[in-house]
Amino acid sequence: MDRINVCIIGSGNWATTIARNVGRNVANSQHMEPIVYMYVYEEIVDGRKLTEIINTTHINVKYMPDFVLPTNIVAVDDVVKTARDADILIFAIPPTFVNSCCKTLLGKVKPTAHAVSLIKGFERGDDGQIVLISQIIMRQLKIPCSVLVGCNLAHEIANDNFVEGTIGCRDQKYFRLLQDIFKSATFRVVVTDDADCVEICSTLRNVIAFGAGCADGMELNENTKAGIIRRGFLETLQFVDVFYPGCRMATFFEACGISDLVTSCYANRNRKLAEAFVKTGQPLSELEHILIPGHEPLGPVTAELVHIMLEKKGLADKFPLFTVIYKICVGDQPLTRLVETLRFAREDM
Amino acid sequence: MDRINVCIIGSGNWATTIARNVGRNVANSQHMEPIVYMYVYEEIVDGRKLTEIINTTHINVKYMPDFVLPTNIVAVDDVVKTARDADILIFAIPPTFVNSCCKTLLGKVKPTAHAVSLIKGFERGDDGQIVLISQIIMRQLKIPCSVLVGCNLAHEIANDNFVEGTIGCRDQKYFRLLQDIFKSATFRVVVTDDADCVEICSTLRNVIAFGAGCADGMELNENTKAGIIRRGFLETLQFVDVFYPGCRMATFFEACGISDLVTSCYANRNRKLAEAFVKTGQPLSELEHILIPGHEPLGPVTAELVHIMLEKKGLADKFPLFTVIYKICVGDQPLTRLVETLRFAREDM
């Protein structure tokens, strides 16, 4: 049987972090091809091509200068060359590049290939709905697509701190393989087939983290923040029940659920952005370039799409926290409404 | 119909905090007796009786000097006089005094009275099991006993920050009344009849907070702490399922569940104690007197009783987080086992 060929599409901070695990894991497996191609969007850094730098120094000087990559990670500047022989395609590019990347790859990947999206975020559907990245990849490339989430602090994985992640994969025969590709001694990976739930949980938590950041910006207390986390968790359960019926409660207790939510509300970019938004009074559009350059702040845009989806079903009133966070983002409600919402939200949902 | 008479047994920080809400609420109700007796263990403070100071200055100078009590809170140095005419007995005394207090009150309270325990902690049963405080009060006084939990930072309530609490009450006809007695504009109170679950959740979170504090002491990362919270939440569900069968999942999503757990893991005395235990290497018995004078550190003792209960059923292996926290407390396992446990804990429970 042929060895399984794994490639990585993307070379940012998160792609490079996971490449360290993937490189080590394939090197230690008799079932996997020992070389992993990594697609790098070519840039010139200090007069040299980034791919050349990575392939000679094994350091991604642009996006992760403090960590060395395994030597079996090979940077390639052509996405088709990267992916054409791969059995497992790991996508770790910004969400805005997914469509064009898939167009380039269409018909050029193995029909038996399996994709794994590590992409945070989603696409905006024509009807203003959230379209999951895994759905776009599946639809465009006509191959199955799993997701890996639950590990939103790349530097903590890179530093070999203990981190938990969740893989959502609809096909049980890939469970062990995907775990073997991503895991490490300090990166615990659990696989579940409840894939949509894994991905949407990971998306909604950015809205809640934005709310938690607003509370921090107002210097509210621990109990208020816990109230936001609790209410956000309840509205996540409820949102999933309406828009992704059939998800399982147990999935919310995986890393993609409760852990991701807690870490996001204490240490996430959306939290930080919201805190600054409240403290400085500056518009979000200005702050995001200063505070999180190169990253789209997913909280506000997710809040907007969630709101559109809820409005279409006439359900905004049933999701008071998601609704008030959206309205605070766009300036339709004062910040004081956040705590008011917690006070008056109905318990029975 | 007679007005409902409410009394408070206890005058510590927590009793005094809640007395401010209770005093205001009864004063504004046509159904409640406007005077609330508060039992104060008599002490001499600066040459004057504490009850006299409270009744003249309306300040509990000993336990809450920065806040003024409503004038309808009347300090009484006799627990029988405090309680004998009361329809609602609010208990807010240290857990070690519950038995003797109930002995004094036996036969002296109205047979139709209803107790509410605000007591954090539990009693150690003869067989080494946790005995819930509400069970002791019910058994000894032969009246029903509800519980109010989920608000472990008294100063946040006192400062009128937003806080959520949960009341566990088996009798639906008391739901509205209890809510009306305790709530305020900033203290949201939800009542559920799943009373044992409310009380045991609030107890177990001290074990998890101790684990979170160990992680802080080792300067581990956000993801590790989230892993402890997640695993702790799962083991709480599982513990309740074994020892208090029939509890409802929804209760874990009330303030007594997820909120109390998160606040405890970020801002609780057990967390702080554990952090110092790790950083200084000093014995717990020495640290607790320095760090949390006047308070029993519930984390270690709860961990011990939980461990005894699990061992008796041969289930310690199924609760690896609770077990390792106990073993770290007593020095049977090194701290490094905490992360090891998270790494290797089985997901299927």
Automatic annotation (TrEMBL), chains A, B:
Q: Does the keyword Ribonucleoprotein apply?
A: no
Q: Where do the Glycerol-3-phosphate dehydrogenase NAD-dependent C-terminal domain residues begin and end?
A: 194-339
Q: Give the EC number(s) under which this enzyme is classified.
A: 1.1.1.8
Q: List the InterPro entries hit by this protein, alphabetically.
A: 6-PGluconate_DH-like_C_sf, 6PGD_dom2, G3P_DH_NAD-dep, G3P_DH_NAD-dep_C, G3P_DH_NAD-dep_euk, G3P_DH_NAD-dep_N, NAD(P)-bd_dom_sf
Keywords associated with the record: NAD, Oxidoreductase
Q: Which GO terms describe its molecular function?
A: glycerol-3-phosphate dehydrogenase (NAD+) activity; NAD binding; protein homodimerization activity
Q: What is the name of this protein?
A: Glycerol-3-phosphate dehydrogenase [NAD(+)]
